[in-house]
């Protein structure tokens, strides 16, 4: 990527600085320009989204997987444990919705986490079909160590101005909104 210039645009009353780049892909140069109508010139938006998703996934695997693996967990298992930790005790149904995974799949994952000693499952007294999950001491310790290891990012993140971090978060939220709309259209 070669930086060309810095420009500003306003979206939802927020000012964002946008770098305009040349992307070198498949031996062709593509000029990425954000116009007033938010279209991309000379670049296929869908291809750019694929590239962003690939970069994010690769980055997450490269940076976060070793942290999860050091606890004997996958990224998804850490995400599940973090969700349970956040809410204390949750039903499998709430967890399924919260992490956006099919209830049958999340139930299988939770059984595995229970077998490995990270969570314990309890059935409801009034309705035995309702299964609730809570972290065990082992699960709490694993999450504590993961959170401690992730603190190393604070040093790096502190180098960026709050506005840039806000712009990244805003961009992720917009991308998530696009994916949500696309998944609704596909169903």
Structure, explained:
- Among the domains are: 1-43, no CATH class; 69-150, Winged helix-like DNA-binding domain superfamily/Winged helix DNA-binding domain (Arc Repressor Mutant, subunit A, Orthogonal Bundle), CATH 1.10.10.10.
- It contains 7 helices and 6 strands.
- It has helices at 45-69, 75-87, 92-99, 103-115, 137-150, 152-157, 162-186, and strands spanning 2-11, 14-25, 28-31, 89-91, 119-123, 131-135.
- β1 (2-11) and β2 form a beta hairpin.
- The longest helix is centred in the first third of the chain and has 25 residues, at 45-69.
- The relative contact order is 0.09.
CATH superfamily of the domain at 69-150: Winged helix-like DNA-binding domain superfamily/Winged helix DNA-binding domain
Which segments are poorly predicted (pLDDT under 50) over 5 or more consecutive residues? 1-38
* Strand portion: 15-25%
* Silhouette: globular
The span between the termini is 37 Å
The overall strand count is 6
Number of helices: 7
Helix content, binned percent:
55-70%
The CATH topology of the domain at 69-150 turns out to be Arc Repressor Mutant, subunit A
Mean pLDDT: 78
């Amino acid at each position: 990527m070669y930086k060309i210039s810095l420009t500003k645009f306003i979206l939802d009353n927020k000012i964002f600085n946008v770098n305009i780049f040349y992307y070198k892909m498949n031996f062709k140069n593509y000029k990425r320009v954000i116009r007033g109508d938010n279209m991309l010139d000379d670049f296929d938006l869908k291809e750019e989204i694929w590239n962003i998703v690939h970069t994010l996934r690769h980055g997450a695997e490269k940076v976060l997987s070793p942290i999860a693996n050091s606890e004997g967990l996958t990224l998804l298992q850490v995400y599940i444990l973090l969700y349970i930790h956040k809410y204390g005790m949750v039903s499998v149904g709430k967890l399924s919705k919260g992490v956006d995974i099919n209830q049958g799949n999340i139930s299988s994952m939770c059984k595995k986490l229970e077998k490995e000693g990270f969570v314990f499952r309890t059935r409801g007294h009034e309705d035995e079909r309702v299964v609730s999950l809570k972290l065990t001491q082992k699960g709490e310790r694993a999450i504590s160590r993961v959170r401690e290891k992730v603190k190393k990012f604070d040093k790096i993140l502190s180098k960026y101005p709050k506005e840039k971090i806000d712009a990244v978060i805003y961009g992720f939220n917009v991308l998530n909104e696009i994916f949500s709309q696309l998944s609704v259209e596909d169903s």
